[in-house]
Amino acid sequence: MAKFTDEEFSGNQNIDGNAYEGCTFNEAVLIYSGGNVPSFSGCQFDKTTFQFDSAAANTVAFMKSMAHPDSGLQLIIRQTFGEIFPATN
Question: What pLDDT, on the 0 to 100 scale, is given for residue 89?
């Protein structure tokens, strides 16, 4: 795991297992492959996107497939994301 503090990034960035504190991402592509979970604290993101590769891409494809209306699993998928993004009152 690499730790980055107060650095600027652009372009493709492999983020598996890295820790970022106070970093700035400008027009970056954050590539996550399903390894150790990265951490971000106090970072800024401008025109930045995610790209999922390898095991992470397989997980995203699985979730998309299970969210399809014909799967019968939409409620479970929504509940899973509800745990990630709980409603605030």
Answer: 59
Q: What are residue 81's phi and psi, to 5 degrees?
A: -75, -25
Q: Which of 25, 23, 31 is nearest to 48 (CA)?
A: 25
Give the integer Cα–Cα distance in Å for 7 and 41.
12
pLDDT digits (tens, 9 = 90+) for 77-88: 888 877 777 776
Q: Which CA distances in Å does 9 have to 32, 38, 54, 69? A: 15, 15, 22, 39
Q: Is the pTM of this model over 0.70?
A: yes
Q: Report the 10 Å Cβ neighbour count for 32.
A: 22
User: Cα separation of 58 and 38, whole Å?
Assistant: 18
